[in-house]
Amino acid sequence: MIVNTNLCPIMNPAENIRMNNLEDSKEGQFVKRLSFFICTLTLIFNTSMPVMAQESLKIYMWSEYMHPEIVTEFEQEFDAEITFSYFHSDQARDEEMAAIAGRGYDLILINSTQVERYRNRGWLEAIDWAAIPNSRYFEPGWQDAFADVGNYAVPYFWGTMGIAYRKDLIPEGIDSWLELLKPDEALRDKIVMISDSRELTALALKAAGHSANSSEGGHLSDARDLLLMQRPYVQQYAYPNISEESVLITGDVWAASMYNGDVMALQSRDENIAYTLPKEGGLIWVDYFSVAAASNEKELAHQFLNFINRPEIAALQAEWASFASPNTATAELMSAEYTNNPIINPSEDILKNSEFVRAMPPRVRKKINNIGAELFRELR
């Protein structure tokens, strides 16, 4: 705590002389005692006053998914501090949230399939849309695409999952999931696959010619067989980082299942990185922000959600992250390079076979998790 020392100043020389002259008089004694009394009260008042703590917002999300300048600007404008914690997969986030019973964070980034489950567990606060007036810029449909998102979630980014590969090392290219799951011998130990059981099973279902959301036992068995067939070729089940040390840039890995925006980040570092949305169709994902029911900063959380949806902020964020924004007001603020990029903004024709990954009933989730456990038993 800082005490304002000017409230009890040291007397200047002239004041000292005057006080010395008065020292032996009754008036002098009274003045000195009064000055001491006032100074003491002032110090007691200042040292006993509570210091207003800076508001703090705790956010749980992917790393490298929020522009640092946006964070700084919000902190300065709202006199708040933002603390980030990161997860490396949707499944890891779900396990962490279960372990802490949904507590410890103010805002949680959730993939579309989990909003309903989180709400059912009592982990989410209903969104106060009146506190987010910038939500008027959202493209129609994002709030109706999945159960409960209209009441408990605010769309952040959307995009696709497809295949990233080194075109200099695979000159013939890869244009299907089946090629990735039944690879050539040259790709042995050169593949990285996402460690999320649901998305792994979804892309394998697509490779087998089924819907990514099929719950039929025979279809799930087809997906399992393909994934087990691919396992000897998989170096690890993880997600490649997007730094200059990425395994795709070093050449340790030649192909991987990846999100489109992250591939864009890699392409900015190495022109040999290519991305394809498989001919069977890719996986369409949507990330949402939700306010935690256990949050003590619900008002600040809503202010943050409104702030990041100011058109100029949302546009800056989308260009920086190389992901598509659900905020329609950003369109006129974007560069032509961003707007015309088919990786970020694929055409309807390219997207026609792609699917949203939807939530599965508990019995099907158990089967899917078992497939993942079988894959990860020896490799991770």
Description:
The chain is an alpha/beta fold and 380 residues long. It has two domains: 55-158 and 284-345, 3-Layer(aba) Sandwich (D-Maltodextrin-Binding Protein, domain 2), CATH 3.40.190; 159-283 and 358-376, Periplasmic binding protein-like II (D-Maltodextrin-Binding Protein, domain 2). Helices cover 39% and strands 16% of the residues. Strands 1, 2, 3, 4, 5, 6, 7, 8, 9 and 10 form a ten-stranded mixed beta sheet that branches. It is globular. The two termini are 49 Å apart.
Determine the structural class based on helices, strands and strand pairing. Answer: alpha/beta
General form: globular
Radius of gyration: 29 Å
Largest sheet features: 10 strands, mixed
Which second-level CATH architecture of the largest domain applies? 3-Layer(aba) Sandwich
How many beta-strand segments? 10
Determine the strand fraction and express it as a percent band: 15-25%
* Number of continuous helical runs: 16
Overall residue-averaged pLDDT value: 87
Distance between the termini: 49 Å
Detail the poorly predicted runs: 1-26, 38-51
Q: Helix share of residues? A: 25-40%
Fill in the keyword field for this structure.
about 375 residues, alpha/beta, D-Maltodextrin-Binding Protein, domain 2, 2 domains, ten-stranded mixed β-sheet, globular, disordered N terminus
